[in-house]
């Protein structure tokens, strides 16, 4: 399926808002790819001035959004695979909006072309990811919207709507990095259960998400340093004070390293969990470093 004709917009930020304002999931992905094609063709330029940005992106009538605790636990077998793919599709739909919201919300006169180019690329890849997973759902005679989902991902983004540094910390460096930690287990499950097509699709997503985390880390470092902050200390402070959840070990150190993220960013969470487990009698005491 092609991306469709390139839309006419006054600026890249205006085009990014059009993605956010598109409710239908398939149409949102198509719009994202069309805007990316227009950017690559040189027919769109950034205004470098944020305009009105939707508080929340438009979404389809389905899936029904419920609280995270109300989302049913995933079953085994065919139903479980459908539920897993549906959850990934929901994540990827959110990721489309998050990438284009980055462009629309945090545009500014000091932003270089590389900032826009990076997030256009991410936004296009997230749209392709959604299509990949939607295709795997179709193989099970299912569609996105068949199951309930929750809005926790966008809630986390809404908390960082007024601070680029916080947005970069929470979305790519916490939420997307978490995807690097858990996706290998999803791939292994699909392989065990004989769904090579879904395993392959998740593998494509996994490889490209490494690049998304790397992109977020690059711009997080640049923004922190522009503010005279140490990036590692700034990340710790944002996560501890501005994130409702917590970093969850175990971490995929190999993938995080491939994204350029050193253990300094997350090893403290491992130490905290080890200390809590020891306190609660669930584990050995944490080893002291020499």
Topology at a glance:
Blueprint: H1 12-20, H2 25-40, E1 65-66, H3 77-105, H4 113-139, E2 149-150, H5 152-158, H6 164-192, H7 196-226, H8 231-242, H9 253-258, H10 267-279
Parallel strand pairs: 1-2
Explain what this protein looks like in three dimensions.
62% of the residues lie in helices and 1% in strands. It is globular, with a radius of gyration of 19 Å. It has a domain of 190 residues: Ferritin, CATH 1.20.1260. The protein has a two-stranded parallel sheet with strand order 1-2. It is an all-alpha fold. Helix 1 runs antiparallel to helix 3, helix 3 runs antiparallel to helix 4 and helix 3 runs antiparallel to helix 6.
Could you name the key traits of this structure?
290 residues, mainly alpha, Ferritin, two-stranded parallel sheet, 2 strands
Could you say what the CATH topology of the domain at 73-262 is called? Ferritin
> How much of the polypeptide forms β-strand, as a percent range?
under 5%
Q: CA-to-CA gap between the ends?
A: 57 Å
- Give the helices and strands as they follow along the chain: HHEHHEHHHHHH
Secondary structural class: mainly alpha
CATH architecture of the domain at 73-262: Up-down Bundle
Number of DSSP-assigned strands: 2
Whole-number average pLDDT? 89
Please bin the fraction of helical residues.
55-70%
Outline, from the CA principal axes?
A: globular
Tally the helices.
10
> Could you describe the largest sheet, including whether it forms a barrel?
2 strands, parallel
> Rg to the nearest angstrom?
19 Å
Ranges where pLDDT stays below 50 over 5 or more residues in a row are 284-290
As laid out across the biggest beta sheet, the strand order is 1-2
CATH class of the domain at 73-262: Mainly Alpha
């Amino acid at each position: 399926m092609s991306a469709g004709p390139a839309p006419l917009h006054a600026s890249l930020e205006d085009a990014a808002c059009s993605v956010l304002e598109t409710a239908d999931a398939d149409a949102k992905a198509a719009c994202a790819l069309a805007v990316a094609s227009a950017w690559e063709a040189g027919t769109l330029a950034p205004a470098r001035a944020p305009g009105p940005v939707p508080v929340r992106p438009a979404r389809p009538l389905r899936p029904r959004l419920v609280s995270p605790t109300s989302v049913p636990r995933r079953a085994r077998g065919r139903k479980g695979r459908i539920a897993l793919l549906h959850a990934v599709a929901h994540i990827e739909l959110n990721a489309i909006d998050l990438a284009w919201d980055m462009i629309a919300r945090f545009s500014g006169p000091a932003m270089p072309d590389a900032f826009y180019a990076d997030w256009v690329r991410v936004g296009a890849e997230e749209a392709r990811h959604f299509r990949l997973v939607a295709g795997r759902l179709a193989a099970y005679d299912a569609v996105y919207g068949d199951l309930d989902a929750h809005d926790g991902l966008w809630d986390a983004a809404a908390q960082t709507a007024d601070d680029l540094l916080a947005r970069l910390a929470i979305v790519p460096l916490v939420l997307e990095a978490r995807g690097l930690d858990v996706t290998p287990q999803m791939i292994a499950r699909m392989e065990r259960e004989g769904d090579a097509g879904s395993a392959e699709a998740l593998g494509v997503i996994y490889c490209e998400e490494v690049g998304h985390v790397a992109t977020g880390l690059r711009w997080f470092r640049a923004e922190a340093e522009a503010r005279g902050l140490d990036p590692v200390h700034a990340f710790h402070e944002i996560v501890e004070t501005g994130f409702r959840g917590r970093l969850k070990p175990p971490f995929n150190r190999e993938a995080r390293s491939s994204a350029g993220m050193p253990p300094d960013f997350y090893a403290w969470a491992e130490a905290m969990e080890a200390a809590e487990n020891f306190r609660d009698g669930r584990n050995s005491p944490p080893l002291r470093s020499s």
